[in-house]
Amino acid sequence: MNRRRFLALSAAFACSPALAYADTWSGRALGAEVSVTLSGPRELVHRALAQVPDALEEIEQAFSLYRPTSDLSRLNSTGELNAPNPQMRALIAHADTAHRITGGLFDPTVQPLWRALATGGDVIQARTALGWERVRVSKTRIALQDGQALTFNGIAQGFATDVIRARLRAQGATRALVNIGEQAALGGPFTLGIADPEQGHIGTRTLRDMAIATSSPSVLMLGEAAHILGPREETPLWSTVSIEAPTATMADALSTAAVFMDRETLARLKITAGLHRITLVDTDGNVQTV
After folding, report:
1. Which domain holds residue 122?
2. Do 19 and 129 sit in the same domain of this protein?
């Protein structure tokens, strides 16, 4: 599985006349096409963009499901990970927060269920392994219970986006757009288009020091099931959910869980999580905003 949400954003990037230079690095990471566009002094732009591939390699080595040597793959294969690195501990903490504020709808332990649905395996048995609350986490060790496996595909892209944005800021950058499956702006404004898999382009959003993530369950089906899975057999209520938030990490995780939430619950989530805006597309193609 390369993507757990559908995201189609096109960015209009205009270099400020006061800035001398703009450039973009593009490649692949965590199963997505990625790009980092930066404007500023030429030396800063070249130096900062040259460091992006190594930073993404660190993240890939931590969270990739498809790299046998990654920290996540080793955790899933052995059931434990000793001395988790700071990035793993940070992502686990973010996942725990998302799990809590979504009432358990964001749950990285759905990986066995996803695998069973994708391969024709035992779905009933897979469901017995679910439960984020059963994962044991300390500063020195992460331990899974029998049959458990984790996926961070609903949060890792956002986390990576925030990591790159923070590193650019630390190097003195003030204007950048980072797209690693989710998008985050450093400075701005940047104009982005949002799309739904059935309705196509549904509108534009303007980002300034903000992040956006979009989830559409039906873009990939696992038999009769949408590829975004609820831990308690929830059925998606929305064709697309797009969340604007201060961080791409939370926008990513919460847009994944939000496809199962009714409008009233989403209104509470917006306040609890400090979100900027939630854009919804229902199954009839109607666009709503919270």
Report:
1. 67-143
2. no
Closest to 238 measured CA to CA, from 280, 184, 192: 280
CA distance 142 to 72: 10
Those residues with Cβ within 8 angstroms of residue 159's Cβ, 6 or more apart along the chain or in another chain: 59, 63, 87, 90, 91, 94, 152, 248, 249, 252
Confirm if 4 and 215 have CB atoms less than 8 A apart.
yes
Predicted TM-score (pTM) of the model is 0.91
Residues 209 and 261 in one domain: yes
pLDDT of residue 14: 45
- The C-alpha atoms of residue 65 and residue 63 are separated, in whole angstroms, by 6
80 pLDDT more than 70: yes
Task: Please say whether the beta carbons of 270 and 278 come within 8 A.
Answer: yes
Per the structure, the count of domains in the chain is 2
Q: Where residue 8 falls among pLDDT bands split at 50, 70, 90?
A: very low
